[in-house]
């Protein structure tokens, strides 16, 4: 019990720190795999933004389910690595298994881990669901369950199949 208490406190502190419900997401300028700039204002919305890392076992376990939701709903899933050591090559190789995901890469203006810091995420995966105005309608620290994610997409204004 003693070892769990500091982790629980850190988790709750993280929730208090992260971009909150109803807030607009921070602005950013990253590149899609084709080199096209993606910002808060140019990204297709509603959308899902997932912060992850290539070494993260929880991310590895969660991605197949997230990818299935992306395929079924046709909602853009933007993935941003919060690991500074995840190079463009590492990210693109990892994402070959998930063609519906849109990995966002470093630009001249921003680095993915800097964007993660702006969102105030403390771990991975962290998943944000945003509406047409780029306002957070739901976020998940850790795994996002399928039904909860679908409910969040409804809140964002997505018409589910």
Rg, Å, rounded: 15 Å
Strand proportion, as a percent range, falls in 15-25%
Helix-strand topology string: HEEEHEHEHEEH
How many beta-strand segments?
7
How would the global form be characterised? globular
What is the overall pLDDT average? 90
Computed structural class? alpha/beta
Cα-to-Cα separation, first versus last residue: 44 Å
Walk me through the structure.
This protein has 161 residues and is of the alpha/beta class. Helix content is 35%, strand content 20%. It is built from 5 helices and 7 strands; from the N terminus they run H-E-E-E-H-E-H-E-H-E-E-H. The chain has helices at 4-17, 57-73, 88-95, 112-119, 146-155; strands spanning 29-31, 37-39, 47-52, 77-81, 101-104, 126-130, 136-141. The strands form 2 sheets. The protein has a 5-stranded mixed beta sheet, sandwiched between helices. Strand 4 (77-81), helix 3 (88-95) and strand 5 form a beta-alpha-beta unit. The protein is globular, with a radius of gyration of 15 Å. The protein starts with a helix and ends in a 6-residue tail after the last helix. 37% of the residues are buried. The model is unreliable at 5-16 (pLDDT under 50).
């Amino acid at each position: 019990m003693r070892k769990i208490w500091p982790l629980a406190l850190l988790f709750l502190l993280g929730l208090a720190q992260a971009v909150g419900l109803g807030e607009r997401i921070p602005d950013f300028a990253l590149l899609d795999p084709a080199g096209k700039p993606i910002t808060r204002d140019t990204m297709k919305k509603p959308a899902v933004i997932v912060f992850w890392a290539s070494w993260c076992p929880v991310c590895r376990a969660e991605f197949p389910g997230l990818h299935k939701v992306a395929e079924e709903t046709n909602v853009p899933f933007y993935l941003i690595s919060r690991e500074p050591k995840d190079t463009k090559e590492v990210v693109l190789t990892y994402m070959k298994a998930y063609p519906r995901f849109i990995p966002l890469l470093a630009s001249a203006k921003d680095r993915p881990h800097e964007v993660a810091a702006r969102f105030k995420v403390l771990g991975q995966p962290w998943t944000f669901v945003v509406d047409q105005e780029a306002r957070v309608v739901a976020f998940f620290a850790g795994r996002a369950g399928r039904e909860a994610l679908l409910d969040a997409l409804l809140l964002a204004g997505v018409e589910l199949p």
